[in-house]
Amino acid sequence: MLVKWEGIVIRSVDYGESSKVVTLFTRENGKLGVMARGAKKTKSRLAAVSQLFSHGYFLCKAGPGAGMPDLSQGDIVDSFRDMRQALTATAYAAYIAELLDRLTHEREPNPYLFQLLLQTFCYLDEGVDPEILCRIFEVKMLIVAGISPQLSACANCGQQREPYAISVSQGGLLCPSCQPSDPYALAVTPSTWKLLRLFQVFDLERLGDIEVKPATRSQLKHVIRSFMDEHLDLRLKSRAFLEQLERMERMAQSDSD
């Protein structure tokens, strides 16, 4: 049976001498793997469409069971060429794709996540701030993972009293009265927790210009990664590379100053 899916390639792994196993995140069926036979050959019609990040329509031959479909052909809608040519944007895109891959299950339809991924890649391709896009995507994925922090009131007593700190162990904001219950609570500025709360609820397609101070950027990253490291068992190769790249960029910036 031939089926057609709209999808984005989030992983591509060599298989044998000439083929690839391609993981798609599709609008219709969520994440699924397909076999792209001969895709490693230079003249293969599947070579381009099986590349990482490609967005297109994928015609696959699927059997009656749960086996891996064969990719017959694909039509590329967007290869995100500008994103691919920028090392920093590519590094963020790889991290975003791997994070999505690790936090989703096979064949669980989620059109919202597909649109989120597609819009994020479109913005990266347009040159929108990759760090902020990454933080927004991470916050959305914390919701998917079921560990989204409580950011509308104190996670302990439910009261709305500033200044807040953020407790990773208790799952969100702590008001001044409750902060002694967690000596490791993270001190954050109002700008940081309000941005985190905004990232939870707003529609990425309505993103405008966001100016975020370096100190706030640092706090956003620290809070989000602290939640991930505490509650998720993730060791992402793309994150290690991204953090190395970020260190190199900071060193270069420091030298130029």
Note down, in words, how this protein is organized.
By secondary structure, this protein is of the alpha+beta class. The protein contains 7 helices and 8 strands, in the order E-E-E-E-E-H-H-H-H-E-E-E-H-H-H. It has helices spanning 81-85, 87-103, 111-126, 130-145, 190-201, 214-231, 237-256; strands at 2-15, 19-26, 30-36, 55-61, 70-78, 165-167, 172-174, 186-187. The strands form 2 sheets. Strands 3-2-1-4-5 form a 5-stranded antiparallel β-sheet. Strand 1 (2-15) and strand 2 form a beta hairpin. Helix 2 (87-103) packs parallel to helix 4 (130-145) and helix 2 (87-103) runs antiparallel to helix 7. The longest helix is centred in the last third of the chain and has 20 residues, at 237-256. The protein starts with a strand and ends with a helix.
